[in-house]
């Protein structure tokens, strides 16, 4: 009979060491009795589950090696005309933007310079990404809930713009209600990535709070 012990580990370098070797994962140690004695032979298997690039970029930012480029609200592509898609289109029209609405089966324009808001259900994202022109994949803005990391890995997407929306909208075209509370007066909606500034500005047009975060900080929310 074999017994398995699980150990969660996180390894972080001191400041004098390159942060690229940051790792987090799970070790499984298997113990096998040998000949009925109290001595046991152990084998350890480790699995690394964390992408070190977010931490490396954060270190680079703190040390002044990289600068975060600000983005501004501008004419955009909105995929999906449901409650969230219609809301973002409305916010764009208030600023006089000629946004492009892409419905199911329509092609995402390859020559559009702005962000592409994916306002579809999580189970539809695979199909949308597969049909997205390669040059526009860096402009995708994900607003779907759920764990999207496996999706990003399947399509080779690293650090895409991702928004976590905390608001209520009871019907299509209805007025959205911000998710701010007494405990979180700055609101709970947050965004990180290339188009974070554009998302925050568009949400602000509708009177909704939105915090801009770095990817490392967004993972803690």
Task: Explain what this protein looks like in three dimensions.
The protein has 6 helices and 12 strands. The chain is of the alpha/beta class and 221 residues long. Strands 5-4-6-7-8-11-12 form a 7-stranded mixed sheet, covered by helices on one side. A 3-stranded antiparallel sheet has the order 1-2-3, with no helix packed on it. Strands 9-10 form a two-stranded antiparallel sheet. It is globular. The protein starts with a strand and ends with a helix.
Supply the key terms:
single chain, 221 residues, alpha/beta, three-stranded antiparallel sheet, 12 strands
Blueprint of the fold:
Elements lengths: L2 E9 L11 E11 L6 E9 L4 H10 L14 E3 L3 H12 L5 E3 L13 E3 L6 H6 L9 E3 L6 H6 L6 E4 L2 E2 L8 E2 L11 E3 L3 H10 L5 E2 L2 H4 L3
Parallel strand pairs: 4-5, 4-6, 6-7, 7-8, 11-12
Antiparallel strand pairs: 1-2, 2-3, 8-11, 9-10
Across the major sheet, the strand order is: 5-4-6-7-8-11-12
Principal-axis shape: globular
Protein structure class: alpha/beta
Helix count, per DSSP? 6
Give a brief outline of the structure.
The protein is α/β, with parallel strands linked by helices and 221 residues long. It has six helices and twelve strands. It starts with a strand and ends with a helix.
């Amino acid at each position: 009979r074999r017994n398995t012990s699980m150990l969660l580990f996180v390894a972080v370098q001191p400041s004098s060491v390159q942060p690229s070797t940051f790792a987090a994962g799970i070790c499984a140690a298997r113990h096998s009795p040998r000949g009925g004695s109290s001595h046991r032979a152990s084998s350890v298997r480790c699995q690394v589950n964390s992408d070190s690039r977010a931490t490396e970029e954060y270190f680079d930012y703190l040390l002044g090696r990289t600068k975060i480029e600000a983005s501004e609200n501008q004419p955009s592509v909105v995929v999906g005309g449901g409650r969230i898609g219609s809301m973002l289109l409305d916010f764009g029209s208030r600023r006089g933007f000629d946004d492009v609405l892409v419905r199911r089966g329509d092609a995402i324009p390859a020559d559009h310079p702005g962000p592409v808001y994916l306002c579809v259900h999580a189970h539809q994202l695979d199909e949308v990404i597969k049909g997205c022109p390669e040059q526009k994949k860096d402009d995708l803005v994900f607003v779907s809930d759920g764990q999207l990391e496996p999706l990003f890995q399947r399509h080779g997407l690293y650090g895409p713009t991702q928004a976590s929306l905390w608001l209520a909208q009871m019907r299509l075209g209805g007025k959205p209600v911000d998710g701010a509370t007494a405990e979180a007066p700055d609101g709970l909606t947050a965004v990180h990535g290339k188009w974070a500034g554009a998302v925050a500005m568009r949400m602000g047009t509708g009177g909704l709070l939105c915090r801009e975060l770095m990817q490392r900080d967004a993972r803690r929310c």
